[in-house]
């Protein structure tokens, strides 16, 4: 049985590289896969595996990385890039004398918490000094090889350039992720040298140091070799995005969601979708969006950081940072902007834009309408072409509309204005004053017909 002190787990994530092949002005680890930075994917996996503390080793654009990732992790700085071993040395004060420490890379977003848990469990069960995460691949070119004896025991790690012909035929590669006994890593780092052609300190050299002191070293073969893939270019960024997209879509389908065309559906990792909902082609579901049961989303809809209740339809529309209650229809071609709250049994129709507004239950906004900074009651009907005029050129103002009001076509409601319950607004009116309950408001000039005006004009 492992004592609580020995079972303490931390993680070091190496994120100091420049990533020149990305050809980017920002740090490689800040490029995103399905809405989340490469580095944040790795941090999430480490936390899911049980890491209580995480230290990120930064270098290139380090301040930018710190600002983006925030204070949920600790940081160490590698001023000069002198190899992976040198990077881990910068976190020496973070490494404790007891427990275990994961060493990971910030550009491997496909690694999962479950795989890291398996690595840790194997490490502790076998009482290894260090356990390597390895993979079996068809083409091992460029990777370090895991060399074992006839009984399958770990002998050494050999870099591709140093391998002989027999070793080059080995298909088990070093995945670059490790679980160390903290104390042994700390001791091994002190013995690292840069006595090589690159004059760098290699983390892989710690394997032989730990092995030479009589401690066990082994490698765990990952079930899915994609999990060790690193991102060094925009091409590889696209490749891992496709892999993660497929992984996420399969998970939702296995949980009872219909995804009509997974190839064209992009769902970010934190999205939650209820059973029997249907996601049509061309949808992008982002952030911490929650979609209820029996919904129909899409085709070609974007929902970002929003909560969609049960039995809602959203087609050809955009919903941003808002909530939509049950049995409501959005679209086609509607735009729900941030901080909007749409009630239940509501119709938000074609070419309707809602911004920073509350729309009460059973209200109908069927087409060609703008509602901005408004509090709308229940059972309100908006005619075609209505505009809530919320901006006076300097400040935004709010409009309130009571229950059962009727807004005629092509009306302008100039904020701030209050339309009380059951009030009627005549078509074509520009309303600048409050309208009492059950009143009819008409704000337009009286129609005048001038007889024979066209004939007289032609004579002139």
Question: Would you summarize the structure shown here?
Answer:
The protein is an alpha/beta fold. The chain has two domains: 9-228, Alpha-Beta Complex (Spore Coat Polysaccharide Biosynthesis Protein SpsA, Chain A), CATH 3.90.550; 234-441, Hexapeptide repeat proteins (UDP N-Acetylglucosamine Acyltransferase, domain 1).
Number of H/I helices: 9
Structural class: alpha/beta
**Strand segment tally:** 39
Mean pLDDT equals: 95
- Low-confidence runs: 1-6
CATH class of the largest domain: Alpha Beta
| CATH architecture annotation name of the largest domain | Alpha-Beta Complex
Strand residues, percent: 25-35%
- Can you identify the CATH superfamily of the largest domain? Spore Coat Polysaccharide Biosynthesis Protein SpsA, Chain A
Summarize the biggest pleated sheet.
16 strands, parallel
Question: CATH topology of the largest domain, which one?
Answer: Spore Coat Polysaccharide Biosynthesis Protein SpsA, Chain A
How many structural units, i.e. domains? Answer: 2
Helicity range of the residues?
A: 10-25%
State the separation between the terminal residues, measured CA to CA.
Answer: 107 Å
Q: What spatial form do the alpha-carbon principal axes imply? A: elongated
Based on CA atoms alone, the radius of gyration comes out at 31 Å
């Amino acid at each position: 049985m492992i004592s609580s002190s020995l079972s303490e787990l931390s993680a070091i994530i190496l994120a100091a590289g420049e990533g020149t092949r990305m050809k980017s002005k920002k740090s490689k680890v800040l490029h995103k896969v399905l809405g989340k930075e490469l580095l944040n994917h790795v941090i999430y996996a480490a936390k899911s595996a049980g890491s209580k503390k995480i230290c990120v080793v930064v270098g290139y654009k380090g301040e930018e990385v710190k600002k983006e990732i925030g204070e949920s992790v600790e940081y160490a700085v590698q001023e000069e890039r002198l190899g992976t071993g040198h990077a881990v040395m910068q976190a020496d004060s973070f490494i404790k004398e007891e427990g275990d420490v994961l060493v990971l890379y910030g550009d491997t977003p496909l690694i999962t918490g479950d795989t890291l848990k398996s690595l840790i469990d194997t490490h502790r069960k076998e009482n290894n000094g260090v356990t390597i995460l390895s993979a079996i691949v068809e083409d091992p070119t460029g990777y370090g090889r895991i060399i074992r004896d006839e009984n399958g025991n770990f002998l050494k790690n050999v870099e591709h350039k140093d391998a002989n012909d027999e070793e080059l035929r080995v298909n088990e590669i070093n995945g670059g992720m490790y679980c160390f006994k903290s104390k042994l890593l700390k001791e091994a780092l002190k013995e690292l040298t840069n006595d090589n052609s690159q004059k760098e300190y290699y983390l892989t050299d710690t394997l032989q140091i730990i092995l030479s002191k009589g401690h066990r070293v082994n490698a765990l073969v990952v079930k899915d070799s994609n999990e060790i893939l690193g991102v060094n270019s925009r091409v590889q960024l696209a490749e891992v995005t496709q892999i993660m997209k497929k992984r996420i879509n399969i998970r939702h389908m296995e949980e009872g969601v219909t995804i009509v065309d997974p190839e064209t559906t992009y769902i970010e990792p934190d999205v939650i979708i209820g059973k029997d909902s249907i996601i049509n082609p061309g949808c992008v579901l982002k952030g911490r969006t929650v979609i209820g049961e029996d919904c129909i989303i899409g085709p070609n809809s974007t929902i970002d950081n929003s909560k969609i209740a049960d039995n809602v339809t959203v087609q050809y529309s955009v919903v941003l940072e808002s909530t939509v209650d049950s049995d409501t229809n959005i679209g086609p071609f509607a735009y729900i902007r941030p901080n909007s709250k749409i009630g239940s049994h509501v119709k938000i129709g074609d070419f309707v834009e809602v911004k920073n507004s509350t729309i009460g239950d059973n209200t109908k906004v069927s087409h060609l309408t703008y509602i901005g900074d408004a509090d709308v009651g229940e059972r309100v009907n908006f005619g075609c072409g209505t505009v809530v005029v919320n901006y006076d050129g300097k400040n935004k103002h709010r409009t309130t509309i009571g229950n059962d009001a009727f807004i005629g076509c092509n009306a302008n409601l100039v904020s701030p204005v209050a339309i009380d319950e059951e009030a009627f607004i005549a078509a074509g009116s520009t309303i600048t004053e409050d309208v009492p309950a059950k009143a009819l408001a008409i704000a337009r000039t009286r129609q005048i017909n001038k007889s024979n005006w066209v004939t007289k004009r032609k004579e002139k």
